[in-house]
């Protein structure tokens, strides 16, 4: 797909002009209300909205543009959204009045503006796990393994010897794992988000080229206690574990943000309104993908 800048989706917020420009709207001097001797124009309303919600609105419009390119609205989506509306109406009192209070004309508009985009967002996240598999592998280093958590290195060495002799990991765990162990020889997905395992173990599982026993004892501190671990790699082949990776990571805030950044880069997202740029720079510099230097750590 051709990489086309998605500036067109919200021309009122983003301009193709020079640096330092600010966007304006048509008929900005048109009066929309008068209080006493004071008149308020469309321009006044626009500037207030831009300051208070401008960057959020911009990103919502950008997301809609990305959805249009990447995730088409299907018959199944419409049916699912309609079912949600029906469920709301059945289980909530005054549903129509509630959505009116939120600014929606009717349930159909609510379905099109809220429910269907929510379904598209989920679909986009799932698609991201295919489109950005290299990024995901590099960042999260996923693998599936059978890990045994032991009380100390001495016990872990005995467990490792049993594993190398071909004993099933769950059987080894029954003999050597610590009481109330989180890792008891069953298959588990491991990623960089797995905070109770050592970085070395996570990296080793990710890099090992052949499934089988990892010939090493690993240690890591958990809740103030240092435990020892041994592991058997089941698979780190992405296509074989992708569904598990998606299940484990799709709801993570960092992954959700990385998903959006991935597609912003794909479509060369740029911001040329100085106010919106400054707001994103302060709060979400990672979205300014044309300026990667702004999101670099100071460390």
TrEMBL record:
Superkingdom classification of source: Bacteria
Keyword hit for Signal: yes
Keywords from the named record: Coiled coil, Signal
Signal peptide stretch: 1-23
Protein name in the entry: Foldase protein PrsA
Keyword Ribosomal protein in record: no
Annotated organism of origin: Holdemanella porci
Coiled-coil boundaries: 71-98
GO molecular function annotations of the record: peptidyl-prolyl cis-trans isomerase activity
């Amino acid at each position: 797909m051709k990489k086309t800048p998605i500036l067109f989706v919200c021309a009122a917020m983003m301009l193709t002009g020079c640096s330092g420009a600010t966007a304006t709207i048509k008929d900005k001097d048109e009066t929309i209300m008068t209080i006493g001797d004071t008149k308020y124009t469309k321009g006044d309303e626009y500037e207030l909205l831009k300051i208070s919600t401008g960057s959020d609105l911009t990103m919502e419009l950008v997301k809609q543009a990305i959805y249009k390119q990447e995730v088409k609205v299907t018959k199944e989506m419409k049916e699912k959204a309609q079912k949600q509306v029906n469920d709301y109406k059945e289980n909530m009192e005054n549903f129509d009045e509630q959505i009116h209070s939120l600014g929606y004309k009717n349930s159909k508009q609510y379905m099109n503006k809220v429910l269907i985009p929510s379904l598209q967002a989920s679909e986009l996240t799932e698609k991201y796990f295919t489109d950005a598999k290299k990024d995901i592998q590099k960042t999260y280093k996923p693998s599936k393994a059978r890990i045994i958590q032991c009380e100390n290195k001495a016990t872990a060495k005995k467990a490792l010897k049993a594993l190398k002799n071909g004993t099933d990991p769950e059987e080894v765990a029954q003999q050597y794992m610590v009481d109330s162990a989180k890792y008891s020889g069953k298959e588990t997905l491991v990623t960089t988000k797995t905070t109770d395992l050592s970085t070395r173990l996570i990296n080793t599982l990710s890099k090992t080229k052949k499934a089988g026993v990892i010939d090493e004892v690993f240690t890591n501190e958990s809740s103030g206690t240092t435990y020892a671990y041994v592991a058997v790699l089941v698979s780190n082949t992405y296509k074989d574990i992708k569904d598990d990776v998606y299940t484990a990571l799709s709801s993570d805030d960092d992954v959700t943000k990385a998903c959006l950044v991935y597609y912003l880069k794909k479509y060369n997202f740029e911001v040329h309104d100085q106010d919106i740029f400054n707001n994103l720079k302060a709060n979400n510099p990672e979205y300014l993908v044309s300026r990667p230097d702004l999101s670099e750590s100071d460390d």
